[in-house]
Amino acid sequence: MGALAPNSAEPAGEKTGEEGMKNHGAPTAAMAASQASQAPKLDAGALFVLKSKGSWLHCGYHLTTSIVAPALLSLPLAMASLGWAAGVVCLLIAAAVTFYSYNLLSIVLEHQALLGRRQLRFRDMAHQILGPGWARYYIGPIQFLVCFGAVVGNVLLGGQTMKSLYILEKPDGTMKLYEFVAIFGVFMLMMAQLPSFHSLRYVNLLSLFLCLGYSACATAGSIYVGHSSRAPPKDYSLPEDHQDLIFGAFNAMAIIATSYGNGIIPEIQATAAPPVQGKMFKGLCLCYAVVAVTFFSVAVSGYWAFGNLAAGTILSNFIASDGRPLLPRQFLIVTNILTILQLTAVAVVYLQPTNDLLEGILADPKKDQYSARNVVPRMISRSITVAGATAVAAMLPFFGDINAVMGALGFLPLDFVVPAVMYNVTFRPPVKKAVFWVNVVIAGVFSVAAVVGSVAAVRQIALDAKNYKLFANV
Predict the structure, then answer these.
(1) How far is 83 from 92, CA to CA, in rounded Å?
(2) Best CA proximity match to 265, nearest among 98, 421, 55
(3) Cα-Cα-Cα-Cα dihedral of 90, 67, 279, 19, to 10°?
(4) What is the pLDDT of residue 462?
(5) Which residues contact 231 (CB under 8 A, 6 or more apart)?
(6) pLDDT band at 174 (very low <50, low <70, confident <90, very high)
(7) Where is the composition biased (Basic and acidic residues) (predicted)?
(8) Are the beta carbons of 427 and 9 closer than 8 angstroms?
(9) Class of residue 91 by CB neighbours under 10 A (exposed 0-12, middle 13-18, buried 19+)
(10) What is d(CA 181, CA 169) in angstroms, rounded to the nearest whole number?
(11) In angstroms, what CA-CA distances link 355 with 191, 193, 350, 358, 433?
(12) Is the alpha carbon torsion for 380, 381, 383, 388 positive or negative?
């Protein structure tokens, strides 16, 4: 990444090529002063939700919570659609490309901050670099849908995990899935009242240990079951039908993209106290150290133990078809509790862009953050948002299929394509430079993957449509 240091290129519209790359140490005082007027005026959302008080460690905690989430428990399913070689390669490529892309976004944001126009939101960043149309009609709506979809998905998964605990204790219990979704929603309602992104720093530190915990449990559980006498027959063969093979592979890529997806890099970097130079890179290193430990261990061990029988979440594989657990009951209870607790933290993190938007509209930046004028609208708006997400999760328990579409249409462009485009537009690296072509290839390849992945995800919805039912008890 040495060629991509934050101070290694000139801003768009000024010097390019070798001369610009050499002379851009830091903007002069005159340049910073002339650009400062372009900085957006801070509204209540930026002042209250996106407070810039954090360290690089706090950025690392936020990044880890937003990326290393229970979605990684679906990675064995993705491996089942790709096979051993392609599955491991896709995991490695996704890790390398997302780390690179997130670092690109961070470099562009640091560059904007050096010029006196620090951007705190993805849509503001897009407005400055790509133009107002891209911010208003693409980046803003896509980010909102991805983040709200992540909240809905986490509430649903929280309800499903709570139901798994209930079934372990009461196999003949009569409570329905939507009841557990509602219970999880009430817990979310309380967590959503934490006032700012920065106020989640210790919650997200705990979340880091929680994800390490349930990932270790999932890995150990898979190894235990794989060696037990009750282990299912291991079949690693791929579909013989070429159409099923191709669409399955792209659907698996959408799952992997969703697992590595973030979509809120600018908002996380906004929490860092100035100067921001280098803080996000350190945070990314912390995050991807956790990614290396968790993603690959869960994916490989789960696929090894269950092969083509890997379920949508590997925890489901720990319960036999006859309802009996394949692992000690206490072990499953601990694993599920760790998962539930981290789901809450993940959902609250992805709620922040919505909180920022609503606070910017409803709150008064001239009043104190904790004045009645601002607290009452905050509590009402956040409660309505969480209630809406809970209602959608309860009504549409097949939301995982819809989330695959959103992953292909949202996470792939936001996390794989847009960073490369923004870097090239901002710094204008010469065509003869490798960084230019690396970014062009990444943007091109993953744009195609986003389109095909969307088609594959929609096809999966069509195949599963016969099982869809509002408030289904799945």
Answers:
(1) 14
(2) 98
(3) 40
(4) 78
(5) 225, 305
(6) confident
(7) 12-22
(8) yes
(9) buried
(10) 18
(11) 13, 10, 9, 5, 41
(12) positive
The number of C-alpha atoms within 13 Å of 286 and in the hemisphere containing its C-beta is 22
Mean pLDDT confidence for 388-412: 80
Tell me which H or E stretch contains 61.
helix 56-67
- How many CB atoms are located within 10 Å of the residue 292 CB? 11
Amino acid at 367: K
Residue 375, C-beta contacts closer than 8 angstroms, at least 6 positions apart: none
Q: Identify whether the C-beta of residue 106 lies closer than 8 Å to the C-beta of residue 284.
A: yes
Cα 140 to Cα 63, 133, 255, 304, 419: the distances in Å are: 20, 10, 22, 40, 15
User: Do the Cβ atoms of 317 and 305 come closer than 8 Å?
Assistant: yes
Q: Is 68 helix (H, G, I), strand (E, B) or coil?
A: coil
Give Cα separations from 291 to 15, 64, 299 (angstroms).
38, 8, 11
Residue 261 to residue 136: CA distance in whole angstroms = 21
For the chain, the structural domain boundaries read: 42-398
| The token pair that represents 450 in the structure block | 């986003």
What is the maximum span of the chain, computed from C-alpha positions, in angstroms?
Answer: 74
Contact 130, 422 (CB under 8 A): yes
pLDDT on residue 136? 92
Which two three-digit tokens encode residue 81?
């659609």
d(CA 177, CA 188) in angstroms, rounded, equals 16
Q: State the average pLDDT for the chain.
A: 87
Q: Beta partners for 186?
A: none
The answer to whether 320 and 314 are in contact (CB under 8 A) is: no
- Provide the b/e sequence for 373-397 (b: ≥16 CB within 10 Å): ebbebbeebbeebbeebbbbbbbbb
**Side-chain-side CA neighbours of residue 275 (13 Å):** 10
**Tell me, what amino acid is at 62?**
H
Q: DSSP labels for 187-240?
A: HHHHHTT---SGGGHHHHHHHHHHHHHHHHHHHHHHHHHHHSTTPPPP--PPPS
End-to-end alpha carbon distance in the chain: 46
Instruction: Give rounded-to-5 percent helix, strand, coil for the chain.
Output: 75, 0, 25
CB 443 within 8 A of CB 390: no
Topology of domain 42-398, per CATH? Hydantoin permease (1.10.4160)
Q: Strand pairing partners for 319?
A: 325
